[in-house]
Design brief:
By secondary structure, the chain is mainly α. The chain has four helices and no strands.
């Protein structure tokens, strides 16, 4: 009997411990699940915030790219327009190329040999020199404007007052080539 009593008490105690352990384990599992739900909610919220930030950055980048493309398109359009203005000026400079020394030589020849040259030729050449100097002045400002717009037109001379005919032809060809290139970009 005592053994039965002790065995019953031991089994009861163990049963109580098992029940208490199950209840405690169930409470612990419920608390753990509640914590897990909170962690999942926090992570979902963080993920949504990060995704919203990513979308905002992407929208800003797309807007910046669109602005940059539009600015480049405007630059190309303006450069093409300036190139179209510069090309006839360069061709005019090539056509009217003359120099003061040639004009002086022609004037000297008209005074020295009046039968070979006439004063009208000197006047024609003088008018040609005036047109040439005006064209060179306009061309130099156009080339500066073009370089400001990012058009690379290299020239073999640095002083606009001492431009040779060949240099002008090369410059006109470069302007023509750049005009065609920019026309393709439009």
């Amino acid at each position: 009997m005592l053994v039965e009593l002790l065995a019953g008490a031991a089994f009861g105690f163990l049963g109580g411990l098992m029940t208490a352990w199950r209840i405690a384990a169930k409470g612990a599992v419920l608390a753990w699940l509640e914590d897990l739900r909170d962690v999942v909610k926090v992570r979902k919220t963080d993920r949504r915030k990060k995704q919203a930030i990513r979308h905002a950055k992407l929208d800003q980048q797309v807007a910046a790219d669109a602005t940059a493309k539009e600015a480049e398109r405007k630059r190309v359009r303006r450069a093409h327009a300036e190139l179209k203005k510069a090309l006839p000026i360069a061709n005019e400079a090539v056509r009217t190329h003359t120099s003061q020394s040639f004009l002086d030589t022609l004037a000297y020849a008209s005074r020295t040999f009046p039968t070979l040259t006439h004063q009208s030729e000197v006047d024609i050449e003088r008018a040609k020199l005036v047109r040439y100097l005006a064209a060179i002045d306009q061309l130099s400002s156009q080339v500066e404007t073009l370089s400001g717009l990012g058009v690379d037109i290299t020239r073999r001379f640095s002083d606009w007052s001492e431009v040779s005919y060949v240099d002008l032809e090369v410059l006109a060809a470069k302007i023509d080539k750049a005009t065609k290139e920019y026309a393709l970009k439009l």
